[in-house]
Amino acid sequence: MTRESGPAMRAAIYWAPELADPLHAAGSAWLGRDAETGARLPQPPLPGIEEITADARGYGLHATLKPPFRPARGYPALREAVAGFAARQAPFDLPPLAVMDLKGFLALRETAPCPPLHALADAAVEALDAHRAPPEEAELARRRRAGLSPRQEALLARFGYPYVKEEWRFHLTLTRRLAPGEAAVLRPAAEAHFAGVADRPRRVESLCLFTQAGPGAPFLIAERFPLGG
Fold this sequence. Notes:
Distance between the termini: 23 Å
Number of helices: 8
Strand order of the largest sheet: 2-1-8-9
Strand content: 15-25%
Mean pLDDT: 95
Radius of gyration: 17 Å
Number of strands: 9
Order of helices and strands: EHHHEHEEEHHHEHEEE
Helix content: 25-40%
């Protein structure tokens, strides 16, 4: 479904499981929201789960290809560019996924190298960058507070985000950064929740254009575009 655009809208290019993939239902239930419909969902009965997943819930179940940005040329032009980009990309097999620790966060990550996946993310960052408005100074300052390496600083200046290209890591975020005691409880629970689902064979057959209506609003899947290269 196409979402209406506005001056405060942000967009992002993400991979998200197909609707028929059980990972869509399992991941949406874990986060407590379906990014396709916007519906809130009951979450597993775990201590603090609503707060622990709050940030990830706002973004929806996804893996980032091109990080959120303000469209420089409007939604229709962006949509046309994303559709054309997707049509030039070839589908490919995704390795089995597993719950892993990523710098203190829990995330679903690939269990084997997947060069086509990295190539897709690199291509999305480059090919669609003409549609990205420059980030505001406050956003740049917030990124720099994380303590960026010289390479990350260069990527921030070039693409508006420090964790692209060789700094990119495929992941579907499941929690905020956890304290050790929280991780001891949450990781086994997440592994059980995604057992038999995350590690299923699946193909990357489409990419998603997510949109956010304004600051603090949830990201929604505006449209899915099939890969057709």
